[in-house]
Amino acid sequence: MIVNRKELSWWERLYLPAIASGLKVTIRHFFKRKVTMEYPEEKWSLPSGYRGAPYLVKDQEGRTKCVSCQLCEFVCPPRAISILPPGPELQKEAGNVEKRPREFEINMLRCIFCGLCQEVCPEEAIFLMKDYSLTGQSREEMIYNKEKLLALGGVHNDTIMKWKHKAVEAGRQEAFPVAEE
After folding, report:
1. Strand ranges for 38-162 from DSSP E
2. Alpha carbons 93 and 43: distance in angstroms, whole number
3. Cα separation, 131 vs 116, whole angstroms
């Protein structure tokens, strides 16, 4: 199919109308309010539905709340979470917590900040923090291990204190045995 195009006039061949319209846009933007932000000093306000990066939290006694159930690892769409459960040995410093992960890693380069890991966690051990500037010099720095995740996540003040409550109940049962009739 042949398209017939009209011949350009002398004025149109000079491209002056196109240059003039480009200058008009430039001058219009020149007098507008500036939108440049001084980044480290000024930060963006995050929208209410923003989901940040996932981090692990500790309980009030400084123990990790994760019980190595691996639900977050199974539900993670990009497979960014990797958990190595503990072996059969008992850990005295863990208190009444049955299991806690030997290794817990989140690859922040793979993480898509979907929030599924927080939703599926039965112990509320993973929380999404409202940050958006995850930086690193290499790929290895962007793989967060358990210690780094706990340091960034901090302590979650829980009103239930599940593990301490079981210890108190167990102590009461031993202190006040129920008489059998």
Report:
1. 53-56, 81-84, 103-107, 126-129, 143-144
2. 41
3. 17
Instruction: Measure the CA–CA gap between 136 and 57, rounded to whole angstroms.
Output: 22
Tell me the per-residue pLDDT of 131-177, one tens digit each, with 9 for 90 and over: 878 889 999 999 999 999 999 988 888 766 665 655 444 444 444 34
166: its two tokens: 């079981």
Instruction: Please state, in angstroms and rounded to a whole number, the distance separating the CA atoms of residues 127 and 129.
Output: 6
Domains of the chain: 63-162 (3.30.70.3270)
- Beta strands (DSSP E) in the chain are 53-56, 81-84, 103-107, 126-129, 143-144
Query: What is the tens place of the pLDDT at every residue in 59-107?
Result: 888 888 888 899 999 999 999 999 998 866 655 655 545 678 889 999 9
Question: What's the whole-number mean pLDDT along residues 106-134?
Answer: 91
CA nearest neighbour of 149 among 58, 17, 84, 46:
58
